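ok so heres the complex, two chains, lmk if somethin looks off
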Amino acid sequence: ARKGRPRLLSRENFIELCHRLTAEDEKTFKALWQRAALSVDWSLEYATIDDHCRRTAQLSFLDLFRKEHVYNSSSPTMWDVDFQTAVAQAEVDDRELTGAYHRIEFGVEDSDESLVVATTRPELLAACVGVTAHPDDARYRGLFGRNAVTPLFRAPVPIFPSELADPDKGTGILMVCTFGDATDVLWWREQRLALRQLVQRNGRLGDVTFGSEGWESLDPDAANRFYAELAGKNVKQAQKRVVELLRGPDGSATGSGPPLQGEPEPMEHTVKFYEKGPRPLEFVPTRQWFVRLMDKKEPLLAKGAEVKWHPEFMHVRYRDWTEGLQLDWCVSRQRHFGVPIPVWYPLDDAGEPDFARPIPAGAEQLPVDPMAVPAPGYEETQRGKPGGFIGEADVFDTWFTSSMTPQIGSHWADDPERHAGLFPADVRPQGPEIIRTWAFYTIAKALLHEDSIPWKNALISGWVLDPDRKKMSKSLGNVQTPLPYIERFGADACRYWSGSARLGVDTAFDEKVLKVGKRLVTKLFNAGKFVLAQESEVQPITAELDLAFVAELRALVERTTAAFEDFNFALALQETETFFWSRFTDSYLELAKTRARGDGADAAAQGSAVATLRLALDVLLRLFAPTLPYISEEIWSWRFAEERGEPSIHRAPWPGAADFGGIAEPANAASLERAVAAVQAIHKAKADAQVSAGREVESLVLAGDAALLEEIKPVLGDVLAATRVHTHQLREAGDLEEGVFGVEDARFAERTDRS
RNA sequence: AGGCACGUAGCUCAGUGGCUAGAGCGCCGCCUUGACACGGCGGAGGUCGGCGGUUCAAUCCCGCCCGUGCCUACCA
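and the predicted structre for the whole thing:
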């Protein structure tokens, strides 16, 4: 509606354009999500504007209507003058603005007394309907019950006491207007003050006539003369002009000079804005539909406590928001594109709508547009005619539909059996900034419809911050989209990065993490290539080194599974990654590779190593699969897909006891650790001698304490093979650190060129 | 102003009432290794924001303070 341009479009054309645009956006998003390998069942795809969702949202309304949880009323509502629609509390943003206290002298009726109010909104002076101060404020106690007289417009308005007035703010006495802010609305209701609505829906001051009913003035001619200068102006323009008028002596309510006392005094204050709006919200009386929530804080809090929040402290945000609710949920929006509110209103003989007797749609006719279809029991020809009907033109707040996400998925509206099986849902993943909207309204709907929670777990992510730790936003121009990174690093690397972020913790975007992810993918590729290149026959796993490694692998599966079950996918990834890198590729694989190739090993020992390598790859791939779907699927396809008769790793069973059946425990759980320590000592000896780790060793002496030497024996063959030691001796030494080997008298072979 | 979270190596982040506080990146040195140089080995680098307290023992628990982010309130 801004700048008036879209108004050239008809409602129908506008809606048509919206459909076209959303279809394009959907395509883009779907392509991105598929590229990012989101494991979505695309057969269940929906759009919140499609028939199924419109039916669900409208059915939700009808259910709430039947249960009397919704009502329509004409009352001051937060209104965005640019978007020209009502907004809900949850869509409001506070912004710091510089304003100014304007001190304005009022008269007191039938006396020569005066008072000075302080206001930041002098342009609403014509809408002043009262004056109030704190009951204990000695300065003003004598004025309560009498009338003040406004300058310029000479309107007599009641002076009343209110606890809400702060004696320390401004002058301690203030004018009540219809409507400057939420407190004005409160006073207007409590004191049953007059309604002098000045600001119109378009944000401009309307036409009013002082001296007419509701616009009383002691001097209507003067009032109208002044007001003529303001009518039609927007709020900002009107403020400028009214201040000029107040600087003149003519408008004084006391005859003692200009009403404006001194110069306006700049101050900082917070003002409510629609989250997308450029100008402050106004309170404008309009007819709106509301969902009654203010009387349901207790059950809302109870349902919130039933949900398991991850991380737990996010529950506090829900609680704080719910406890702080101040208004029922305004669900009607004055927009073209959206889900229509499925009601009509009967017209009386004079053609006036009876809003107190709305006609709801029948459940069987959903989805329905009351602007296109006649009310039940009426003919289309009766639309707009006396004795006929009109259709509701408003649409729902988008959250009214989005709050039904679990029910949309479970087909609450048309498949009770499916709904019973899928509701409440297991998990809601979402961002922290929409706890007060998406999460809150979804919980509210589940409560109102079925006295249920909508989902058992709420997973609240953190934010991705830009590299300077600032929140990404359009206005800062620091927003990143995933596609360029998917192209540069691959989808798996991007998923590695997002999968590393802890729930509820903000993470600065860092390309380094993508590089690490890409490196992991490459390493997996190479490790997979090596493991599956070992073609010799698989034998039972019996070698001590292999058994010790398998025992560690089994423990890893348990830790990773537990982490996933706790929704701690970052820990699951970290556990698997660390194990893969340090225990598998750096340790076990290096130790077992010679034996697996068959160099000097018997068939049983070789087969044991090959079996272990295959098992490790098989299990690790499946542990990685949720985070790195592409590379794990690729490697899986090389051999396991056919072997297992399961083409996709993503449908293979999760690793568990079945993978470890019949494999014995190692004689010594620390066997792998001992072997690693021995290799490390020999590598260090080579590094000290500045020869490559691959250099053959003619002979060396491996030193260690007696227990250590005993423990190394079962895996010594693998150690010597991995380090290419030809002959060795063991020597008992007491002067080494615990668990550490020493290498003595190493004689390295001459370097030989490999052919 | 209140609430919640965070503050750990140059950077991005793990972590625990007790072994010498960790990883990756970056940095320095060595190794052109046979799945992988997008690799391997070795190394330097930290008063765990500050000050108090509880404890035999605190980076971790408690209090206060400083800084950062978010939420809520203030909106004359």
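quick notes: Chain A has a mean pLDDT of 90. thats all i got rn
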